[in-house]
């Protein structure tokens, strides 16, 4: 059974892919270069795709900087040393990003004959993004069924988000059980020119908290 | 009130934009170059955006040829002299195209503070595309409300498809009432290198039928 995996190069999508692979899916990995400031993650995505043994890895480019509205796609500073628990949606929110990414995954899924899409969204320990919630995912599945030839012909699309109810520590534990090499991943929103994580953005903070709570060292920090 | 208009350069999206403008919307036109073989329509989109007096015209590029699955984005021949009434979804269907386009429109809408998206889909005299049906549009509105910061903050997005229940002839009549200049548009899927319509693809056939039934000459044919 084929599945399209939305693969960012971060630890969530790698873990989601490893879970899907353990369930028997043949993976078609889709990575989207959207003009993100942490384009370093695209390199990690290639390493992760190789480690997952995907059937194919497609990289698509769409420059969301032209749309703007996010500190991840602009020259604006991303927040550092923020209290992750604080209310509200941070400036790193990219308008409609997951809707756009799922749509592209859907198009490719239809072409390769996959009715399953795998994505690493998680709703616990997340950054307050609306498009990481399960009600959003369910609504997208309906769009997929109604808006495709495959859906009209009777296929039912499913968006698998195996991490949606897991905290970062549980994600990491699950990944390690499955042999995931987190040293290949990149999480930081604001890396140095050489690609080193800043250690203080939301994404670094959530990652550090996850490894700490899982009681294992982060291989990226050890290096 | 601001609205994002999905503007292809064809006659439907121009007419939909003219209707939205007549209702008082300030238009932000979004045109997507997706590697379509009829890239000629992108030039028409610029002319139409000017004629509509849009506030801004954004062109985004995303190469859907990498995804494939359509004769509109591949070297495969598009159908000519087909019976438009025949059952089934033709090879010119682009997997998930309208989902992708609406997602991009949604992202930009959020950034410019628009909660209205205008698109030219029509379900009568259409080519059998699943993503032109009103149930698909309604499902997408739900995705928009659930997957955006604006939606979480209480906005309700609306996708306006003022042509959805109109045949081509009615669309043309309505457009002419509103002063639309159909000589600026491009409909053909398979134009000559110089950009001349072929006259026999589905899109040309629907256009010709529309002008014939409206009882008016097509300014593109007169030229």
Question: Care to count the β-strands of chain A?
Answer: 5
Mean pLDDT of chain A: 92
Report strand % of chain A: 5-15%
The quaternary state of the protein chains shown equals homodimer
Number of domains of chain A: 1
Order of helices and strands of chain A: EHEHEHEHHEHHH
Tell me the CATH topology of chain A: Rossmann fold
How many distinct helices of chain A?
8
Top-tier CATH class of chain A: Alpha Beta
| Main pleated-sheet profile of chain A | 5 strands, parallel
Distance between the termini of chain A: 37 Å
Enumerate the strands of the largest sheet of chain A in spatial order, edge to edge or round the barrel.
Answer: 3-2-1-4-5
- Uncertain regions spanning at least 5 consecutive residues of chain A: none
Secondary-structure class of chain A: alpha/beta
The whole-angstrom Rg of chain A is 17 Å
- CATH architectural arrangement of chain A: 3-Layer(aba) Sandwich
* Helix content range of chain A: 25-40%
Shape of chain A: globular
Largest interface: A-B, 43 and 43 residues
How are the SSEs placed, and which strands pair?
Two copies of one chain form a homodimer.
Chain A: E1 2-6, H1 11-22, E2 26-33, H2 40-52, E3 56-61, H3 97-112, E4 116-118, H4 134-146, H5 149-152, E5 158-160, H6 168-177, H7 202-214, H8 219-222
Parallel strand pairs in A: 1-2, 1-4, 2-3, 4-5
């Amino acid at each position: 059974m084929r599945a399209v995996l939305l693969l960012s190069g971060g630890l969530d999508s790698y873990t989601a892919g490893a879970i899907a692979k353990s369930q028997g899916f043949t993976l078609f990995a889709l990575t989207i270069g959207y003009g993100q400031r942490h384009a370093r993650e695209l390199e990690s995505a290639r390493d992760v795709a190789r480690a997952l043994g995907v059937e194919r890895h497609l990289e698509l480019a769409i420059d969301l900087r032209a749309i703007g509205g996010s500190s991840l796609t602009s020259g604006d500073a991303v927040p550092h040393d923020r209290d992750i628990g604080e209310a509200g949606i941070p400036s790193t929110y990219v308008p409609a990003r997951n809707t756009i990414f799922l749509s592209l995954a859907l198009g490719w899924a239809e072409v390769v004959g996959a009715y399953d899409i795998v994505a690493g969204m998680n709703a616990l320990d997340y950054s307050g993004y609306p498009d990481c919630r399960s009600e959003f995912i369910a609504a997208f599945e309906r769009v997929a069924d109604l808006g495709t030839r495959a859906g009209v012909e009777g296929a039912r699309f499913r968006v698998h988000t195996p991490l949606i109810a897991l905290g970062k520590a549980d994600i990491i534990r699950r990944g390690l059980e499955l042999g995931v090499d987190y040293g290949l991943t990149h999480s930081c929103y604001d890396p140095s020119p050489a690609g080193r994580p800043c250690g203080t953005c939301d994404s670094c903070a959530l990652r550090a908290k996850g490894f700490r709570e899982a009681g294992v060292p982060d291989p990226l920090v050890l290096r």
